Amino acid sequence: MPKPQSPDSSLRIGTRGSKLALAQANWVKARLEEGHPGLAVELVLIKTTGDKLKDVPLAQIGGKGLFIKEIEEALLAGQVDLAVHSLKDMPALVPENLVIAAVPPREDWRDAFISNNYATLAAIPQGGRVGTGSLRRRVQLLNLRPDLEVVPMRGNVDTRLQKLTEQGLDAIILAAAGLARLGLTHLCRDFLSAQEMLPAVSQGALGLEVRAGDARVREIIACLDDPVTHQAVRAERGFLARLEGGCVVPVAGLAQVEDGALFFEALIGDLEGRKLIRGKITGSPAQADALGRTLAERLLDQGGREILAQIYGRPI
């Protein structure tokens, strides 16, 4: 049976149990307790499908949503009051009656190059082996270095770092944000630029999800929302929504707000990295979602429609 609704003095956060998920949830917990003296925040650990299926490539089992579905179910059932997600793990469409009510300031959006032997991606010799579980990273790696062997890899950060040595890989690519939140930035040998490796949509951002009608919790977490980050991820998620994208499609996007304008760059790639269709758009942050969808249409018209139709097995 679901627990009764929390009293005003308490709040329950639903989170996965990985080190990174707990680091993120504890960061939110600390900020909320600082901002609301007397508020008691409890973490409720929830095991998701993505946690249970550790050895299957995400692209084969549905990708986005695998790490949040059970948490959203607990939220809808009233078993938790707030869900803390890595926003890049969230599908573009949020279930009815739920809403992303706050997006804290974005952590580093870049991808990090980690290697025991080489200082940069360019330094890896021909035929080198690089590990990643991301189709987005795979296609961009192969576009930069078609000579490389991209080795599929899943698992939490510790597992991937272990595989770097155990599997004799020349390097692995991880999100810089995850390393920063775990205090492991020192392991990074290089940060990949947007030109080398455009990030996943919403990479580095957290999404705080609540029940749409829960005014109490929305008011409590409002202090954590960063309007600039929120506008940027709206553009990125608008782009993703139009492409119906997830982990099964190689798309990437980065929006940034500077001097009152929103700048958004995105790409669609084929599965082997032979072709990257890339574009940019600039406009008002107030039109973030529309800008994302407009750029998606442009990239579809430039050849992305054929690429995605082949991947989906249907027109888009």
Written account of the structure:
With 316 residues, this protein is of the alpha/beta class. It has 3 domains: 10-104 and 204-225, D-Maltodextrin-Binding Protein, domain 2; 111-192, D-Maltodextrin-Binding Protein, domain 2, CATH 3.40.190; 236-312, Porphobilinogen deaminase, C-terminal domain (Double Stranded RNA Binding Domain, 2-Layer Sandwich), CATH 3.30.160. Helices cover 34% and strands 23% of the residues. It has helices spanning 19-35, 49-52, 58-61, 69-76, 135-144, 157-166, 176-181, 215-221, 227-243, 288-312; strands at 10-15, 40-45, 82-86, 98-102, 111-114, 129-132, 149-152, 171-175, 190-192, 206-211, 251-258, 261-269, 276-283. The strands form 3 sheets. A 5-stranded mixed β-sheet has the order 2-1-3-10-4, with helices on both faces. Strands 7-6-8-5-9 form a 5-stranded mixed β-sheet, sandwiched between helices. Helix 9 (227-243) runs parallel beside helix 10. The model is unreliable at 1-7 (pLDDT under 50).
Main sheet?
5 strands, mixed
How are the strands of the largest sheet arranged?
2-1-3-10-4
Instruction: Please give the count of helices.
Output: 10
Q: Provide the succession of SSEs.
A: EHEHHHEEEEHEHEHEEHHEEEH
Q: How many domains, in number, for the residues?
A: 3
Q: In CATH terms, what is the fold-level topology of the largest domain?
A: D-Maltodextrin-Binding Protein, domain 2
Q: Would you count the extended β strands for me?
A: 13
